[in-house]
Amino acid sequence: MERELSSQPETWRSAAEEAAAATALPESGQSVAVVGCGTSWFMAQAYAALRERAGLGVTDAFAASEALLGAQRGYDKVVAITRSGTTTEVLRVLEAVRGRIPTVTVLGAPDTPAREVSDETVTLPFADELSVVQTRFATSALALLRAHLGEDLAGAVADAEEALTVPVRQEWVEAEQFTFLGTGWTVGLAHEAALKMREAAQSWTESYPAMEYRHGPIAIAAPGRLTWLFGPAPEGLEQEVTRTGASFVHHGRRDPLADLVLVQRVALERARARGLDPDSPRSLTRSVMLGDS
Ligand code: F1P
To answer: Using CB atoms within 10 A of its CB, is residue 109 exposed (0-12), middle (13-18) or buried (19+)?
Structure first.
């Protein structure tokens, strides 16, 4: 995990370079559904929010198991995101819409079943991973998609380099609980940050859209706990969190995707501090493959 997460600036650069040739990705104006499971679903959420914000067309993100792809929704394209290419729910979606809605899969492991059931694929083999816990495939897939939306990733890459060198504070390693917040595309990053902490370090983490936090979840904030915000800060939020005694963490200057790299490092350090092996996370496999029953 450590080796793979450290390579992110490089894999983001390579992913961004792929964008120009990735003609299978949605065109401007197309109505798009993006599907994935776990980490890949959260990257789908981030992409959907960014594409809509860019004015490029309706873009909805779904957990593959809950995708609403009926004819009445009128999607022009389905984008699937999967590192392994073997996740059952993703394969089922691709099979179900075959011949009805064109599909493109952003894929880590190239020669896998997802290729067979997708109309087109964009492969990122250089970002594939050995670790069960995803880091660089997910962020590289998002880097590809951001670049395809027309973003220049140079700043994000530089910020990721910095995020790999800043110290991981002891307070973050020891905190009893984390809540991650975001707005717009960073809501997906907040969910992914929370998942990383659970997967790698078995930590108690929650995640919400930042403006939802005051509608109940802030009751969890207390001394020894931590609220970490990705992206712009809603007015007054920091003061409200600080009033509870919880710590408020916000690196507003850094690209939020690079801030996720820092959280991956925190998850790794928390795993180590607890004597856990982040490469053998409890109850997890690299991909979930369900039986036929
Ligand atoms: C998706 C995923 C991972 C998760 C777990 C099971 O995999 O849900 O995000 O960490 O290991 O699989 P994939 O479809 O992107 O290969």
So the answer is: buried
pTM above 0.70, yes or no: yes
Q: Each residue of 114-164: pLDDT tens digit?
A: 999 999 999 999 999 988 899 999 999 999 999 999 999 999 999 999 999
Q: Which atom of ligand 1 is nearest to the CA of 286?
A: 11
Count CB-CB contacts under 10 A for residue 123.
20
Output the furthest CA–CA distance in the chain (Å, rounded): 55
Stated as kind and residue range, the H or E segment containing 68 is none
CA gap 63, 118 in Å, rounded: 17
CB of 51 within 8 A of CB of 75?
A: no
- CA-90 nearest atom, ligand 1: 14
For the chain, list the domains and their CATH numbers.
2-151 (3.40.50.10490), 156-273 (3.40.50.10490)
